[in-house]
Amino acid sequence: MQTQAYRQLDRDHHLHPFTDFKALAEEGSRIVTHAEGVYIHDSEGHRILDAMAGLWCVNLGYGREELVEAATAQLRELPYYNNFFKSTHPPAVKLAEALCRLAPAHMNRVFFTGSGSEANDTVLRMVRRFWALEGKPDKQWIIARENAYHGSTVAGLSLGGMAPMHGQGGPLVPKITHVRQPYWFGEGRPAGQDPGTFGRECAAALEAKILELGEENVAAFIAEPVQGAGGAIIPPESYWPAVKEVLARYDILLVMDEVICGFGRLGEWFGSMHYDLAPDLMPIAKGLSSGYLPIGGVLVGDRVAETLIERGGEFFHGFTYSGHPVCAAVALKNLELMQAEGVVERVRNDIGPYLAERWATLAEHPLVGEVRSLGLIGALELVDPDTGGRFDKSLGAGTLCRDICFELGLVMRSVGDTMIISPPLVISRAEIDELVSLARQALDDTE
Ligand code: PLP
């Protein structure tokens, strides 16, 4: 079928996620047809370097035959069975064991879901159930962060702190509130504060919120180690140690959303490990299967697990596709390949530092106000070269730069005027050179 025919069918019948439907109908879609390694290809013959690993998920890159074989073999063996009540199957059990082996030592249980959003719905249910079972039913408030993304289900969007989503979300889940994000650049590099002071101030804002709500009413704090969709926000070094201290002062659960940072993105199996954190719960998804099939879950620490198991009775929660056998088989193979190929160590010791060095060269560009990266996640903050400050929002500099990138053969994401990369973890040095060179050209063309 020809490109134009696909575009017309798309216009006529397909509502895309996070898309202005009308604008898309006017402009038409790019039809992505196939992919290999770190490149996607479209129906018009373009080869595009995917510096977003799809949606932060294709960690092992495209075209891995081993994952195709794992799916095919499992489809033949047992294409579907559920994990409700007293049934299970080998892929779910083996994946659960593998995950708990890779997770921090105090995390020995996993609850499977079909996605990251469902994982965060599960978090909400588990956290409140835990405190009810502990005889503290008032502990219901969950503190999240402004500008956070935790998914698109009602619980996910309520935990998230994105104002435009809240505006469209209908009634949100009660007793969820948001505190300041540790976004030094985005908060305008507050005058007279170095990043360290700013990081501690953000942790102090969390403490102030706990005291305002009353610690006896606060159930949990949820955050990503590095905030992804909000703008690849790497917190100042002072932030997590200070938050850890605050949470230790009050009996409040820590939920680390590892949907993006998990599975090697920051050079450790989980982002929490990079920051030496010991979360009570870790929602996971995306890189778990390198995005080849949809699967998510919540890793559960011993404290919460023991209460739910010993005192909980039936947990009235679960999904038809919780621990789907084919998705679980692919996820298991994905973890095996990552281990066999030393993917996480390579991000930490080799390709992450290489990206940091090459990416930092973009700081010299007049359009760039800040460059940051950690492991294989990175961002550029676009600024008006005349003032050194943010562009006028109405100019849409980020969107323009993103579109130019696409035309040049590079997928970079824009969040406002923040340009983001999160490439497949298997990206080579030569491909990073290409990525940086295309990004530089896109900046030149945006000017
Ligand atoms: N949590 C975080 C941090 C995410 O980035 C996302 C998706 O981007 C989600 C949760 C939701 O995951 P899903 O899209 O699989 O529902």
UniProtKB/TrEMBL annotation:
Q: Does the keyword Translocase apply?
A: no
Lineage summary: Bacteria, Pseudomonadati, Pseudomonadota, Gammaproteobacteria, Oceanospirillales
Query: A Pfam family in this protein?
Result: Aminotran_3
Q: Which UniProt keywords apply?
A: Aminotransferase, Pyridoxal phosphate, Transferase
Query: What Gene3D superfamilies does the record point to?
Result: Aspartate Aminotransferase, domain 1, Type I PLP-dependent aspartate aminotransferase-like (Major domain)
Q: Which PROSITE patterns match?
A: AA_TRANSFER_CLASS_3
- Which InterPro entries does the entry link to? Aminotrans_3 (IPR005814), Aminotrans_3_PPA_site (IPR049704), PyrdxlP-dep_Trfase (IPR015424), PyrdxlP-dep_Trfase_major (IPR015421), PyrdxlP-dep_Trfase_small (IPR015422)
Matching NCBIfam families, A to Z?
Answer: PRK07480.1
| UniProt cross-references to CDD domains, sorted A to Z | OAT_like (cd00610)
According to UniProt, the name of this protein is Aspartate aminotransferase family protein
